[in-house]
Structure formats: C-alpha cells, structure tokens
Amino acid sequence: MAKMDENFAFLILSIVAEIPSGKVATYGQIAELAGYPKNARLVGRVLHQADFYGSYPCHRVVNSQGMCASSWSQQPDLLAGEGVGFKSDGQVDLKQYQWQGDF
Fold first, then answer.
1. Per-residue model confidence (pLDDT) at position 101
2. Torsion of CA 76, 57, 60, 51, to 10 degrees
3. CATH 1.25.40.10 given to domain 6-97
4. How much is the pLDDT for 3?
5. What stretches in the chain show pLDDT beneath 50?
6. Angle at 96 between CA 74 and CA 83, to 5 degrees
7. CB-facing half-sphere around the CA of 102: CA atoms within 13 A
8. The predicted structure's pLDDT at residue 103
9. Per-residue DSSP letters for the chain?
10. CB distance 47 to 15 below 8 Å
C-alpha cells in the first residue's frame, strides 16, 4: 500500500486536476494512472482531504459503477452542471462520460 504522504497526495490531486469539465474518472482509474493500481481507497482518502491542499475538481471522481459519494449530496448537481449525464439508476453513464486521458 502506498504511504499516505504529501507527495502521494499531490500526485493524486495533479491527476484529478487534469479531468476536464464534463468528464469523470473512477477512483481505480486515478490509482492506476498514479502507479498504484490496488489503492483506489487511498485515492478516496486523499480526495476526502483535498481542501487541505487547495481547490481541485474532486467532484469529477466516482466509483467503478459510476456512483457518486453517498456522503456528498452536492456531487450529482455539480456534475450535472457540467453536462455529465446519469442513467435511470442515478449512476454516471461511464461509457459516455468517463475521461480517457492519460497522465
């Protein structure tokens, strides 16, 4: 497991900063791009503390099924405001809105 330190946090946040408006990435995708493919939960921990490091578009990160964070009621509205679409079950349509960029 990756050590939770500032270098790791800034790596994760620099990847999140690259997600364009109107697109989403998954926690696992961010972990993979960072070189820590088994640490999606650690990515979530970093994002939970992101305000400590500055302003990042953390609302653009969802789980592997396209679900928004249950503890963040504003996240769906923020995504919808950027044009991200949701399926009838409330999940982001990852086929259409998942960011395909590399880092």
1. 76
2. -70
3. no
4. 47
5. 1-3
6. 40
7. 1
8. 59
9. -----HHHHHHHHHHHTTSPTT-BEEHHHHHHHHT-TT-HHHHHHHHHTGGGT----GGGEE-TTSPPPTT-TTHHHHHHHTT--B-TTS-B-HHHHB-----
10. no
User: Per residue in 17-43, is it b (16+ CB within 10 Å) or e — as a string?
Assistant: ebbeeebbbbbbbbbbbbebeebbebb
This prediction has a pTM of 0.90
Contact 27, 94 (CB under 8 A): no
Which residue shows structure tokens 């249950």?
Answer: 70
Q: Is the dihedral of CA 35, 38, 42, 46 positive or negative?
A: positive
Any idea where the domains of the chain sit in the sequence? 6-97
Residue tagged 């998942």 (tokens): 98
